[in-house]
Amino acid sequence: MKTYLDCIPCFFKQALEAARMVTNDKEKQHEILNRVARELPRFSLNGAPAEIGSVVYKIVHEITGDSDPYKKVKEKYNRIALSLYPKLKQEIERSTDRLLTAVRIAIAGNIIDFVVGAKFDVEKELQKTLTCKFAIFDYEDFKKLAEQAENILYLADNAGETVFDRVLIEELDKKVTYAVKEAPIINDATIEDAKFCRIDKIAKVISNGSDAPGTILSLCSKEFLTYYNQADLIISKGQGNYETLSEEKRPIFFLLKAKCPIIAQDIGVPEGSIILMKGH
Amino acid sequence: MKTYLDCIPCFFKQALEAARMVTNDKEKQHEILNRVARELPRFSLNGAPAEIGSVVYKIVHEITGDSDPYKKVKEKYNRIALSLYPKLKQEIERSTDRLLTAVRIAIAGNIIDFVVGAKFDVEKELQKTLTCKFAIFDYEDFKKLAEQAENILYLADNAGETVFDRVLIEELDKKVTYAVKEAPIINDATIEDAKFCRIDKIAKVISNGSDAPGTILSLCSKEFLTYYNQADLIISKGQGNYETLSEEKRPIFFLLKAKCPIIAQDIGVPEGSIILMKGH
Q: Residue B272 — left, alpha, or beta (φ > 0 → left; ψ -120 to 50 → alpha)?
């Protein structure tokens, strides 16, 4: 997905939100916005929004000296999500289609996204996502490939969400590689978050070698790219991964909730929709 | 009112909206946003948002060569508003407090604001504004001053809204000077709009000498400042005039609907509130 002009005001909104996470110093917050303003005209809109987003968050880090503004929030949501794990497993146990319920749970985990900023109630959102209609539902294809696949690459999204991913990985019951970020970026999961949620007990956890949001292949490590090219199923979680991989020709399935109006428009679904979509 | 950091993302949103009003050329729209990005760091936040807003709209004009992107929209709403005039007068006739109803009508006219961008239904909004509770209601002071005043200066806001202002001016039944913009800026009323709505039949219509949004005194003409300094009541319509005059020590009453969350916060009222507020 390319960057839309509508993303530009949003980069400033995101920069301000991140700045406020780290510092109360209004001068510094203003300096961050001014630096974003000076950097922005250098970028074309041909890349994914996440590519510019990555620059925005780097500016926040540089000016505040805080390379992990979302650390506390991530820890909090890791804990909340982990406490929900038994409940998530119960939902699987009482469901008639375990894999589908696990997919719904994995998407529900995608609500843990502080960038979008809205307050939310995890349990309420979970119940909604367990029952609501998919706007795109390539489930039969997904199920078939999930059964056949030998090497599944699972692209993580946010911290906390990892617990919900764990439930899906357990249902897949295959050799899964779980790829997270090399270093903190926004609230994206890192190896630390994956381990906290004990994904390392059921999957091989690797870093994608990059600290950009989403999966910008040109910034990923060779090791990651080997997994990426060899996987016979890639499960891509969340908006950032969609933005950066939507045009890729690999066996990718995008699992996400379209929280951003522009991403929803790019996919062609109403804002707030849940999606299980086969890539190109 | 000073500029808040939250206004910065909004300047880009406004620039994009204005750009889209004038051109479908995405390159030009992008150029506008880039130019705004380059200009923005030059400004302090000590001025009102309208001061930076004025630069933003100048950039749109310069790059597109269109000095009046809202021309058609203004003409349309002038016509719609004028067709409502008999209905507005009926509301006055059947009210128990004519002046208060006229104040409510003038505020209802303030919904005609395309910058904020939301779709709206003029008649529905009118009915709501005729009955809803004021968040700030300095009506007794306003009524007293309106009765005593000999020279009233009425600061116009948007085109179309002028018809609603006309109803209040008719109820005031005093010597009123109606100040509009020197040249088109956003959807603000100009002399042409005032005349279209026939304000010139009941008040002296003048330009404030500036084409900035709101009333930036340092940019206004000497003629306007004479009226401003001699008026014994100043009626200030809308958010732009509030932004630029909120700290002034003159007998100003602010009539507006707080459509912007940041302005609502600055005033200390919930977003969407209607206000009749005495200045300092």
A: left
Q: Calculate ∠ Cα A10-A113-A205, nearest 5°.
A: 120
Report ipTM (2 d.p.). Answer: 0.88
Q: Which chain B positions have a beta carbon within 8 Å of A40's beta carbon?
A: 33-34, 37
The residue out of B64, B83, B109 marking a domain boundary is B64
One domain, residues B196 and B89:
yes
Q: Residue A105, Cα to own-chain centre: how many angstroms?
A: 14
The answer to whether residue B1 sits within a structural domain is no
pLDDT, one tens digit per residue, over B214-252 is 999 999 999 999 999 999 999 999 999 999 999 999 999
Q: Which of A45, A236, A241, A262 has its CA nearest to residue A154?
A: A236
Asked if A124 reaches chain B (Cβ–Cβ under 8 Å), the answer is: no
- Which residue of chain A has the CA closest to B29? A5
Instruction: Identify the band that residue A80 occupies on the pLDDT scale cut at 50, 70 and 90.
Output: confident
pLDDT (average), residues A165-182: 97
Does A55 touch chain B if contact means CB atoms closer than 8 Å? no
Within 203-262 of B, beta carbons closer than 8 Å to A belong to none
Q: Is B2 part of a structural domain of the chain?
A: no
CATH number of the domain that A42 lies in?
1.10.8
A5 and B CB contact within 8 Å:
yes
Question: Could you tell me if A128 and A243 lie in one domain?
Answer: yes
Residues A265-274 pLDDT 10s = 999 999 999 9
Average pLDDT of the residues in B100-107: 96
Q: In which domain, by residue range, is B263 found?
A: 71-278
